[in-house]
Amino acid sequence: MCNVSNFKQAVGFLISILAFNVSAQPEKSVEEILLRADQYRLDSAAAKVVSEVQLYENDELETTRHYTVYTRPERESLVVFKSKVEAGQKMLMLGDNYWLLMPKSRRPIRITPMQKLLGEASVGDISTLTWSADYQGKWVQSLELKLPMSESVMVNQLELTAKTSGASYQRIELWLEKGSDFPIRATMYLRSGKLAKEAWFTKGERNARTSVVAMTLHDRIQPSKKTVINYQEISPVALEAKYYNPAYLSRNTVSGL
C-alpha cells in the first residue's frame, strides 16, 4: 500500500514538472526569438562593423587588434585586418567557402572552417555570425541565470545546431533574457563535441537603441586566454559586389575600406 502511494506521489510530481515546463515555454517561436536576438548585434542586412579586439593572458592585456567587417545576406562577409602587424590581410567568407588574402601574395589561400577558428580572436567570432541564419534552434528551459557580477536574470535557454558544415561552431548553448531576448551567455562547441569558448554579452546603447556593445570570450581549451571584442561602430553599409570576389581582392589593396 505504501508502495502504491509513493508511486502515485512520484507520478504526480513528474506531471507537475512537465506542466511547468510546458507553461514556461515562450509564446514566440524559437525562430522569432533568434531573429530578435540577432537584431541586438546587427540591425541591418548589410552592415559595416568596426571592432577593437583585446587579447588577455592570465587577465593581463597582451595585445589589441582592430578589424572592420562588412557583412551582407546569404552568409557572406569580408574581414579587413586594420592593425599594423596585420595590415593588408583580408578574410573573405562566402557561404561555406573561405579565403585568406595576404598582402605579398597574388593568390587567395583557401582555408578550412577549422583554420578559420584558429587564434584567440578567431575570424569566426569577429565576423558576427547570425544565429537565425546559421543555426537551427530548440527551446530547452526557462531558468534563473547568475551573472558574473553576482546578479541574476531570468532567461530562456536554447540549443542551436549548425545548419551547414562551414558554421563557426557545430553546437551553441544560448541564454537569452526572458521577455527582451537580449543575449546574455553562450557556450560554443566544436564538431568533435569539445567545449571551445564561453561568451558573455555586454548590454549598452548604440544609435539610441539597446545593443550588444561588447562580447567577452573565455577560451575553454586554453583557460588562461580571454578575448574582449568591443563593437565600436555598426552602420548600414552595402559594399559593391566586386569586393566579394577573391580574385579582385588579391589584385587590389582596398586600403580605403
Report on the architecture of this protein.
The chain has a single domain (32-251), classed as outer membrane lipoprotein receptor (LolB), chain A (Clam). The chain is 20% helix and 45% strand. The chain has helices at residues 2-24, 30-39, 113-116, 123-126, 131-134, 246-251, and strands spanning 47-57, 60-72, 76-81, 90-94, 97-101, 109-111, 135-146, 152-162, 171-177, 183-189, 195-206, 209-219, 225-236. The protein is an alpha+beta fold. The protein has a 13-stranded antiparallel β-sheet with strand order 6-5-4-3-2-1-13-12-11-10-9-8-7. It comes from Photobacterium proteolyticum.
Task: Quickly describe the structure.
The chain contains 6 helices and 13 strands.
SSE order and pairing:
Layout: H1 2-24, H2 30-39, E1 47-57, E2 60-72, E3 76-81, E4 90-94, E5 97-101, E6 109-111, H3 113-116, H4 123-126, H5 131-134, E7 135-146, E8 152-162, E9 171-177, E10 183-189, E11 195-206, E12 209-219, E13 225-236, H6 246-251
Antiparallel strand pairs: 1-2, 1-13, 2-3, 3-4, 4-5, 5-6, 7-8, 8-9, 9-10, 10-11, 11-12, 12-13
Keywords: Lipoprotein, Signal
Protein name: Outer membrane lipoprotein-sorting protein
Pfam family, one: LolA_like
